[in-house]
Amino acid sequence: AQKITQTQPGMFVQEKEAVTLDCTYDTSDPSYGLFWYKQPSSGEMIFLIYQGSYDQQNATEGRYSLNFQKARKSANLVISASQLGDSAMYFCAMRVANQGGKLIFGQGTELSVKP
Amino acid sequence: DTGVSQDPRHKITKRGQNVTFRCDPISEHNRLYWYRQTLGQGPEFLTYFQNEAQLEKSRLLSDRFSAERPKGSFSTLEIQRTEQGDSAMYLCASTPLADGELFFGEGSRLTVL
B21, B25, B18, B28: which is closest to B7 by C-alpha? Predict the structure, then answer.
């Protein structure tokens, strides 16, 4: 069965510092994709970054990078130079090939950025 | 604004009443997904459509739940005989491709008293 695990219910980071949000996944399918979404208090899920299982390089999008360790089945999100606006819930999600494109989400990590 | 639109944003109802949520996806996105998110949890998949065809339903979608996408554009999610356990945020997402990024709406928050 496919599963996403986020073991950090809450994280604090000082403004301008970097923070790593943990995500581990479980699937036996060799073809899958990993996503990170941000959910502010407004409720909308905002796409941040994507990593395919066959991608050789770690994905980066601006201040976001994904530390993909395939053998460990981990896909941690690194946010550099944290900003107050980064305070939100962060969800890791997985999509397995040939499963209709649906995403399986973890339980999320609440990030609070302190000034 | 051409993003995914959901209506209503908030709904308070009494137990036993029926409620309906509407989702307008991004134009020409042929895949549409419904998710449910309870407090402190990640979204859980409910069902999805490819154009007007409902291709998969989660076991979470009990017989009190029904979803439609009659013309392959907007979709509705109806909950009959609501229960307090139905209180949640109902999220809609769309994508133009099977392996594309999902674009989410802001959700419809249901409170059942």
Answer: B21
φ and ψ of A23, to 5 deg: -150, 125
B102 DSSP 8-state letter: P
Rg (CA), chain A: 14
A–B: how many Cβ contacts below 8 A? 61
Contact A23, A103 (CB under 8 A): no
Which residue(s) pair with B50 in the sheet? B31, B53
pLDDT tier for residue B1 given thresholds of 50, 70 and 90: low
Residues of B in contact with A37 (CB under 8 A): 104
pLDDT tens figures, B22-66: 999 999 899 999 999 999 899 999 999 999 999 999 988 889 999
Residue pair B23/B92 in contact by the 8 Å Cβ criterion: yes
Contact A35, A46 (CB under 8 A): no
State the sign of the Cα–Cα–Cα–Cα dihedral A41, A44, A49, A55. Answer: positive
CB-nearest partner of A103 from B56, B102, B107: B102
- Nearest by Cα to A34 from A61, A55, A8: A55
